[in-house]
Design brief:
It is a single chain. By secondary structure, this protein is mainly alpha-helical. The protein has 17 helices and 10 strands. The strands form 5 sheets. The chain has a two-stranded antiparallel sheet. A two-stranded antiparallel sheet has the order 2-9. Strands 3-4 form a two-stranded antiparallel sheet. α4 packs antiparallel against α5, α5 packs antiparallel against α8 and α10 runs parallel beside α16. The relative contact order is 0.14. Keywords: Membrane, Transmembrane, Transmembrane helix. Its main location: membrane. It is a multi-pass membrane protein.
């Protein structure tokens, strides 16, 4: 008995896993990693243009392609996390890959032999005569760039899910986690677009990339310090393979009659796992779970995965199909965001950047929406959500899709305001005879704050809405993949941005084809984006009204060691 009491006393002393304390390490990694990533997202276009001698259009497209790839490859990180590794190990592995990318960029920025000769002191009309980067220099640039993209993609897929895993499904703190995760994202971004961008402008890009390298290294170390506190997922096999199995079995059983009652379908109850009840949408997939009957009328079940699937497996496939229209209808908002990170930054370089006597780098202009987000996120979580919860009875205050919709409306308004501000900027250039001048216009850069602040609020609603929607609606076996899918909206938005810029240039006869924004038709482009955003919102309303939220039956059984039962969420890495 004494031995048993000693054992129980030891068990009581074990640290509690999960909860707010565990998420502090997640917030820290997100802030540090995002500080590095966002500082480059807003300023790399000036590095490409001013140091690698890319044209303005090529600089913008190179950045948007890099950003798109960084978000799209998150699908790979999500698959790795759900199939082979825990979310913690995925974050560490991909964080190390990102670290190598920043190190390569630091080396290239430090040694001038690895970059083309500087192209300075030429008039705007003569910038096409600059010597382009040779193949070796371009190879170093793109290797470092896409190592960063590949690394950050895995972190973005697994880190939000790792943080959300620290709370039980019905814990109200899990809803708040996503808002505070965005706040840590925002704090890191604020430091990135101010301090890191100031370093790149005044001390050199080698110092800036070096600080990014150090930030990612520290973020990996901080996340590892919380290892003993995490509740970690146990990979449940490839979600992609399970989805393929459903389609294969459904096609194989296509000649069988449509099942009428749920008893005709195969299901297996698992310990501490969710059961997804059958839904009426996409009923042709239900054939994948049909129990086969023999000639004497008895029912036989062949448990081989390529012969029969469970109802839950069929339903998680349906969930992915239902999510696709939502993700596609939010793509265009990220196309608009790409313009704020490229053309709007270029606009700032033509304006007076002195604010309160301090010269603000153009790439630091995105601090305006970030400050708005920093102020309003706590207000949203601590004031709006409790009030809305009392009115609607919904734990999150409003539903995820409603939150996303508000962001899409604000995005359209932001693009319209951007068109008005650009019209004003060009009129100032004409009035002062500075259309071809390299001198800053007598117009303060804070004018760009209008479009940025509105878009910041849009991002506050849509960013968290998407991540939380895809995490909560995904089945237990594909949480990381669901989070990764939410980043695909950003990926396709950045890719579409490159396509839109090229198409508009060809169709319009060169609205954005000059290296001189004072002669371009950027205001027309912004208004075009505003109109397309309104149409996109109409499409989103149709998709959101069609979507059916997931219903879950959670099977809880007492853990019985004698029977060898085990839980699917372990407290060890």
């Amino acid at each position: 008995m004494g031995i048993l009491r000693a054992f129980n006393g030891q068990a009581k002393q074990e640290p509690k896993r999960g909860g707010i304390r565990a998420t502090l390490f997640v917030y820290a990694m997100e802030g540090l990693e995002n500080m590095a990533f966002i500082s480059n997202a807003v300023s790399l276009v000036t590095y490409f243009y001013g140091y690698m001698n890319f044209s303005l259009t090529k600089s913008a497209n190179t950045l948007t392609n890099f950003m798109g790839t960084s978000f799209l490859v998150a699908l790979f990180g999500g698959l790795i996390s759900d199939t082979y590794l825990s979310r913690f190990k995925t974050c560490v592995l991909f964080g190390c890959i990102e670290l190598l990318g920043y190190a390569a960029l630091t080396v290239q920025a430090h040694f001038h032999q690895l970059r083309p000769p500087p192209c300075q002191g030429l008039a705007i009309s003569q910038t096409t005569q600059c010597q382009a980067a040779d193949s070796g220099q371009a190879a170093i640039l793109f290797t470092g760039l896409y190592l960063v993209g590949f690394g950050t993609s895995g972190v973005k897929a697994a880190l939000p899910s790792l943080g959300a895993d620290q709370f039980e499904e019905r814990d109200s703190k899990r809803s708040s986690f996503f808002n505070w995760f965005l706040l840590s994202f925002t704090v890191g971004a604020i430091i990135g677009v101010t301090f890191i961008v100031w370093i790149s402008t005044n001390q050199g890009w080698d110092w800036a990339f070096g600080l990014c390298t150090a930030a990612v290294l520290v973020s990996i170390m901080v996340l590892s310090m919380g290892k003993s506190l995490y509740r970690n997922n146990v990979p449940k096999g490839s979600p992609l393979l399970r989805i393929i199995q459903v389609f294969v079995v459904a096609i194989r059983n296509r000649k069988l009659p449509q099942p009428g009652i749920e008893d005709e379908l195969h299901e297996v109850a698992r310990v501490h796992n969710e059961i997804l009840p059958r839904t009426e949408q996409f009923r042709f997939l239900d054939r994948a779970a049909i129990k086969h009957s023999s000639n004497n009328g008895s029912t036989s079940i062949n448990l081989r995965p390529w012969r029969i699937c469970t109802v839950t497996q069929v339903e998680e496939t349906k969930i992915i199909i239902r999510m696709l229209p939502i993700i596609l209808s939010t793509v265009f908002m990220n196309t608009c965001l790409a313009q704020l990170q490229t053309f709007t930054v270029q606009q700032s370089t033509t304006m007076n950047t002195h604010v309160l006597g301090i010269k603000m780098p153009g790439s630091s202009i995105p601090v305006i929406p970030l400050v708005f987000m920093f102020i309003f996120i706590p207000i949203y979580d601590c004031v709006f959500v409790p009030i809305a919860r009392k009115i609607t009875g919904i734990p999150t205050g409003i539903r995820y899709l409603q939150r996303i919709g508000v962001g899409l409306v604000l995005s359209a308004i932001s693009m319209a305001v951007a068109g008005i501000v650009e019209t004003r900027r060009k009129s100032v250039a004409r009035e002062h005879g500075m259309v071809d001048s390299l001198q800053p216009l007598p117009m303060n850069v804070l004018w760009l704050g209008y479009q940025y602040s509105i878009f910041g609020l849009a991002d506050m609603f849509t960013f968290v809405g998407l991540i939380q929607f895809f995490y909560e609606e995904s089945s237990a076996g594909m949480k990381s993949l669901g989070t990764a899918i939410s980043w695909c909206s950003s990926a396709f938005g950045y890719y579409l941005s490159s396509v839109v810029v090229d198409v508009v240039n060809k169709v319009s006869g060169g609205w954005l084809d000059n290296n001189n924004l004072n002669r371009d038709k950027l205001d027309y482009f912004y208004w075009l984006l505003a109109g397309m955003s309104v149409v996109n919102f109409g499409v989103y309303l149709v998709c959101a009204s069609w979507y059916r939220y997931k219903k879950v039956e959670v099977i809880y059984k007492e853990k019985n060691h004698a029977e060898g039962k085990q839980v699917e969420m372990l407290n060890a890495v």
